[in-house]
Specification:
The complex is a heterotetramer, with two copies of chain A (about 140 residues) and two copies of chain B (about 80 residues).
Chain A lengths: L1 E6 L5 H5 L9 E8 L6 E8 L3 H17 L3 E7 L1 E4 L3 E9 L2 H18 L2 E7 L4 E3 L4 H8 L2
Parallel strand pairs in A: 1-4
Antiparallel strand pairs in A: 2-6, 3-5, 3-7, 4-6, 7-8
Helix pairs in contact in A: 2-3, 3-4
Chain B lengths: L1 E4 L1 H7 L3 E3 L9 H9 L5 H4 L7 E4 L2 E3 L10 E5 L6
Parallel strand pairs in B: 1-5
Antiparallel strand pairs in B: 1-2, 3-4, 3-5
The chains are: A alpha+beta (about 140), B alpha+beta (about 80).
């Protein structure tokens, strides 16, 4: 089972978790990334590429499924303007044993940070904004796989 | 050729895209960037940090020395920051 | 926020995930362990200790929270007879950044396997049963922290 | 002293607990196991794999050489397999 979504609307992590079903399934790991009140931001604006972003998410799902022999994988990433506390991204992996599912979500999040065309902008209380720079630590972590 | 801009690059350009016919001696993405930067604003500012530009040719990620031969769309954008 | 439960009844992972709330919260990682159809089992019977198991879960929550500077942590473990596909255990960790939350769930699951008084028995179709042996790999993984 | 059994150990014992008054020369958990094993079935079978036995004294995990002095309950069980 593969579920990939690139969407503006919110999603419910619990609902996504319930979609996994397999008799061989023994482990489900998930990760949610949320808009956090860093730098006194009020919101986050996320831009995507109309074609490449979806393709990159699909490729990431395929690679991760093969690499960790997953029974199921989910990636949801939002775009548009997200308020504090709102979910930005959700990844989940289902496998027979716990090691694969857990490593898969770490791998997916590391890769998402460098391989998928998405750009974040911080929106401040006074209406000003600032594009977030790619972190060197993310680049290093992603290339370590 | 259509050139599309995303994120900070789009904002610095002040528009989503351009449609430009390049001279015949423009072969690679590097050539495009150099050619456009020489035209002055807004290109020179938007492309100032050359090492921070990323590219895609017809929706496939591409290196700066890639050929633009038979390409209909070049996308220019900063390093990604999703997740 | 700390949520610890040792219970016979089922739980909903999604509902548990919604309980985390903090403005500083940027990351939530979770793991669910389910009854898997290994060795042609029909069910799993889980035994606990009336006093020690709860205490061990509380201690594990405290240690994990401190170790990973968590903003929230959840551990739910069931006992009694569980059918194929039913959830056995759920752990979740909330933090500012993804690294801490992800490592916390790996740590909790590794520790659960060796530090908490719980015992699993496989129930087969013919009514026979077999206690599961502790895995050497689990002992090694737990002692590696 | 009350002795409680869990999981496989409980099944091998055929009961949840015993209440036993030990002689004064029984000081440690090891002494208890040796003393009971010498009594024969079901102790000898339930305690056969000595290295696979785990213990708790008054609900706190304890090593096999721990003293049972002033302890009201000893729990005996196999290695845990939760999670």
């Amino acid at each position: 089972m593969q579920h990939i979504a690139l969407q503006a609307k919110a999603f419910d992590a619990g609902e996504e978790l319930r979609k996994f079903e397999s008799k061989r399934l023994g482990a489900i790991a998930s990760f949610s990334g949320l808009v956090r009140s860093e730098n006194e931001i009020r919101a986050l604006s996320i831009e995507h590429h109309p074609v490449m972003t979806q393709k990159a998410l699909e490729k990431l799902c395929d690679i991760t499924t093969q690499r960790y022999h997953l029974l199921g994988v989910t990636i949801i990433h939002r775009y548009g303007t997200l308020k504090l506390g709102e979910p930005i991204v959700f990844v989940a992996a289902a496998s027979e044993h716990r090691k694969e599912a857990m490593e898969a979500i770490i791998y997916m999040m590391d890769r998402l940070k460098t391989d998928v065309p998405l750009w974040k902008k911080e929106i401040f209380a006074d209406g000003s904004s600032r594009w977030i720079d790619q972190k060197q630590s993310d680049v290093e972590r992603s290339s370590s796989w | 050729m259509k050139i599309t801009y995303f994120a900070k690059t789009r904002e610095l350009m002040g528009r989503d895209s351009d449609s430009i016919d390049f001279p015949t001696d423009i072969h690679t993405i590097d050539d495009v960037i150099e050619y456009l930067s020489a035209k002055g604003a807004p290109y020179d500012v938007a492309f100032e940090e050359r090492n921070s530009l990323r590219f895609a040719l017809d929706n496939e990620l591409a290196q700066n020395d890639a050929s633009i031969n038979n390409i209909s769309e070049l996308a220019i954008f900063p390093p990604v920051t999703g997740g």
